[in-house]
Design a protein that fits this description.
Structural class of chain A: alpha/beta
Distance between the termini of chain B: 66 Å
Order of helices and strands of chain B: HHEHHHHHHHHHHHHHHH
Number of strands of chain B: 1
Structural class of chain B: mainly alpha
Largest sheet of chain B: none
Largest interface: A-B, 76 and 61 residues
Distance between the termini of chain A: 43 Å
Oligomer: heterodimer
Strand content of chain B: under 5%
Radius of gyration of chain A: 22 Å
Radius of gyration of chain B: 23 Å
Number of helices of chain A: 10
Shape of chain B: globular
Strand content of chain A: 15-25%
Strand order of the largest sheet of chain A: 1-14-13-12-15-10-11
Number of helices of chain B: 17
Chain lengths: 449, 400
């Protein structure tokens, strides 16, 4: 019997627009792209030129400081553009796909016959290493460092997030192979944090069950409740979807970056799951699915809390397996909003009378900030949605002041920006907390190197 | 509604940088966001936000204060007509009180908001809502006969030196309303204490003419206890000498500062604050626990009248309840950690009773107790944070 950890703090925001467990037909993506910005802690170096022919799995770019980290192409085809911004920063590498995908052949391998170094080399070679992240700093993991443990969250708990139990159906074998590969990469344990009552099966790893509201599915919360990261320790994290991709590499010998992407949000006509290749255009996922005349729609690659704002012309971002469409709300003028009783306005506090409507009501929340930015006034707001043994307000203040000792002492090494997403949602003062944490982590890493 | 929105959109450019009226930009922005929820959408970070903002928060606090304020107005009239021995009926009584209190509210708001608006424009920031609550608290915690100019001076002092110099709402160390009260108390002690100030015996805008009845004394129950000799004390009485029960203290038709007398009204406010989750139940409850515990200890010693006062009466007397519900729970100046709030509340309650009982010069201790604990709140938080740090350090050691 696996042990169950109950998460008490947190919040499930009951949004309209959940994806039913139905497969939808996938659209054709005119091009595919890698966006370096969706990976933290790397310095992109492009290793292909415009006009080059690539196969699925061919490296498009590498990390300048850790050249063994390669970023594989999701499709075969021709490199059509390397878009750069200010100071020649790489914005995206675009590939025009062939009609039929040709795969780079890395050879089928049986994980059980390989040692850790060989497994690592195989993953690096196939260009899928960047899916493994590390704490501290929440960046692409360094292959040269031995992680204490590896944590795999076995479910997603964010608003409208896809159901991994559904995603894994038919791919159980790849998932298990992926986990077996991870076991070889650490001298410690591989932890799989699964939802209580989930049918997810896995062997050879330590299974811990979690019960409670979001962010119970956040890997940071799971780490903190299983075995927190101490100063000097490194742990790795990887999304379960990407464990499947690693599994495919060993079972089929190819870089197959297919993901089941959830189409969610109240502004979508049809919702469900789409088979899509990582890096496809947003348009190929949402075309024909948005409400008519939807000009004031916000498209998000990822979920409403941690995702990236995108347009139809943009590409699916690195770790995402969800597209969300919510109303933008910029065409809406609300008269005396602070004074009305506010039935139907979502708030965690009971200062609007919405809470009388009960827990099962679904909400359609738009992208308005709904207030001015202020200093931190209310106390204990963050604590209520932050189920880690960390004092979020004090950690944030230490980051703002960039007091390194304080940051270390208060647990900076254990957190990622996503852990503060709910705090940012409930914040009366409307401060961009995730940005503060991201900047703090980046600066700290510069100081420590 | 639409016409107003269009009009606002039309005049908006005048207030932008470089416009004719750019010097009033903060004021315009303040009024615009007062009327319409800003429809700016998030650029980065979370895509959806909770509907609450600081305007809503302050609105809820003001709503919670209204019962106590309205009752206070009625009580001002009630005490006045009791003193002159006439009974003009409910509405006359209320209007008398309304007219007596309204100028104080106006003065406090005009002075305080004037300073806030100016500073906001000067710093090119949005106008912050914090003073909406302070501005209504100030008239509620002063005696009704406080001269208006004193309120103006004290409010200006508090807003500038207790708040703006620290950086504005959210950065202040002391509760602004209480600094106002403390300033009044120490700068103009004669106008702030004694038997004359808590009941208006003169007229208000010509209303309520009459001569004071025989045997009238404006002493508040707390004042009576403070000066009572142990052997001759017969119990607290109202202004005409009739004895007062605990129930009378609870209902609140007794002399005192405007907002503090009715515990029923304060209870309604407390319920609003707790249900909406704006005020911390941790702080509120621990203040009462701290006060009750300290009263018990003094009961055991029992050498003076005020030491002998029962636990229930101690908590019902003076501004204890008002302070516990509306002042100690101020999130900015109280302890901010969950555990810290318990310690903070207990000490506020205990100190309030200690000052009240042992200090002969000033019968009420709540104001000074909260201000004192405002100073120590960061220290309390420091130790709570330190314990979290130590836990993390010891965890790291065990693992090595």
């Amino acid at each position: 019997m696996a042990n169950v950890i109950k998460i008490k703090k947190g919040l499930d925001i009951n949004l309209k627009g959940k994806a039913p467990e139905e497969p939808l037909t996938s659209g054709k993506s005119a091009s595919y792209a890698i966006i370096p910005d969706s990976y933290c802690g790397i310095l992109p170096k492009v290793v292909v030129k415009v006009g080059d022919k690539v196969k699925a799995g061919t490296a498009l770019m590498i990390d300048k400081n850790r050249p063994e980290i390669k970023f594989g192409s999701p499709v075969s085809g021709e490199v059509t553009a390397v878009n750069r911004g200010e100071k020649r920063k790489v914005l995206s590498i675009v590939v025009q796909p062939d009609s039929q995908i040709e795969y780079e052949d890395f050879g089928k391998k049986s994980v059980s016959s390989l040692n850790g170094e060989e497994v690592k080399a195989a993953i690096l070679e196939a260009g899928i290493w960047p899916f493994i992240k590390q704490r501290p700093y929440d960046i692409v993991a360094s292959p040269s460092i031995q992680p204490r443990d590896i944590f795999v969250p076995g479910f997603y708990s964010a608003p409208l997030a896809p159901d991994f139990d559904f995603i894994v159906k038919g791919q159980e074998q790849d998932f298990q192979t992926g986990l077996d590969a991870l076991v070889k990469l650490t001298a410690g344990k591989v932890y799989l944090g699964k939802k209580v009552g989930s049918a997810l099966k896995a062997t050879g790893v330590e299974i811990v069950e979690f019960e409670g509201p979001h962010p119970a599915g956040n890997v940071g919360v799971q780490i903190n409740n299983i075995k927190p990261v101490n100063k000097g320790e490194v742990v790795w994290t990887i999304n379960p979807d990407d464990v499947i991709i690693i599994g495919r590499l060993f079972n089929k010998g190819i870089t197959d970056l297919t993901r089941l992407v959830a189409i969610t949000g109240s502004e979508m006509n049809t919702r469900g799951y789409v088979k899509a290749l990582y890096g496809c255009t947003i348009d190929s996922l949402v075309a024909g699915r948005l409400h008519e005349g939807g000009e004031h729609v916000r498209l998000i690659s990822g979920n409403v809390l941690t995702g990236t704002k995108v347009t139809k012309e943009d590409y699916m971002h690195g770790y995402d397996n969800q597209i969300t469409a919510i109303p933008e709300g910029d065409d809406y003028n609300e008269f005396f909003g602070w004074a009305v009783p506010g039935f139907g306005k979502y708030s965690v506090s009971h200062s609007y009378l919405t809470w009388l409507c009960g827990k099962n009501k679904e909400y359609d929340i738009d992208a308005r900030i709904k207030g001015g930015k202020r200093a931190m006034i209310m106390s204990n707001e963050y604590d209520k949605v932050f189920p880690m043994d960390i004092l979020p307000e004090y950690l944030l203040k230490a980051i703002i002041a960039f007091d390194i000792d304080k940051m270390e002492n208060l647990g900076i090494y254990e957190v990622a920006p996503e852990d503060f997403a709910l705090c940012e949602f409930v914040d009366t003062s409307k401060i961009e907390l995730q940005k503060i944490v991201r900047n703090g982590l980046d600066q700290l890493r510069k100081e420590m190197d | 509604m639409k016409a107003l929105r269009n009009y606002l959109n039309k005049i908006k450019p005048n207030f932008e940088e470089g416009g004719k009226l750019a010097m009033f930009r903060s004021v315009f922005e303040g009024f615009e966001s007062f009327m319409y929820v800003p429809n700016a959408t998030s650029k980065s970070g979370v895509h959806i936000h909770d509907s609450i903002d600081s305007k809503r928060t302050m609105t809820v606090v003001i709503i919670a204060l209204l019962p106590a304020l309205l009752f206070g107005m009625y009580n001002v009239g009630y005490q006045h007509y009791l003193a002159i021995g006439s009974q003009p009926g409910f509405w006359m009584t209320f209007v008398f009180g309304l007219l007596a209190v309204l100028p104080q509210i106006i003065v406090s708001y005009v002075v305080g908001l004037g300073i806030e608006f100016t500073v906001a424009q000067w710093k090119k920031e949005e106008i912050q809502e914090g003073f909406l609550v302070s501005g209504i608290l100030i008239p509620m915690i002063v005696p009704v006969d406080t001269p208006l100019w004193m309120i103006a001076v004290a409010t200006a002092f508090a807003v500038i030196f207790a708040k703006e110099v620290f950086g504005g709402t959210g950065y202040n160390i002391f509760n602004v309303a209480l600094v106002t009260r403390a300033f009044l108390f120490f700068a103009y002690p004669a106008a702030m204490s004694g038997d004359k100030v808590f009941v208006r015996t003169g007229t208000t805008f010509g209303m309520g003419n009459g001569s004071i009845v025989d045997g009238f004394s404006g002493a508040t129950p707390l004042g009576q206890i403070a000066v009572a000799a142990k052997d001759h004390f017969q119990g607290i009485v109202d202004t005409l000498g009739h004895p007062l029960s605990s129930m009378d203290l609870f209902v609140g038709l007794i002399p005192g500062s405007i907002g503090e007398t009715s515990k029923i009204a304060i209870l309604i406010g407390a319920i609003i604050l707790l249900i909406t989750g704006i005020a911390s139940w941790r702080t509120m409850i621990s203040v009462f626990v701290g006060g009750a515990a300290m009263s018990c200890i003094f009961n055991l010693i029992g050498t003076t009248v005020s030491m002998q006062t029962g636990v229930l009466d101690q908590l019902l007397l003076g501004g204890f309840c008002f302070g516990a519900v509306f002042m100690a729970t101020d999130p900015v100046t109280s302890a901010r950690t969950e555990k810290g709030k318990f310690i903070y509340g207990l000490l506020v309650g205990a100190f309030a009773i200690i000052i009240r009982v042992l200090n002969p010069g000033y019968p009420e201790g709540m104001m000074l107790a909260i201000l004192l604990m405002n100073v120590f709140a960061p220290l309390i938080d420091y130790y709570v944070v330190e314990s979290n740090i130590n836990k993390r350090l010891s965890r790291a050691k065990i693992n090595k």
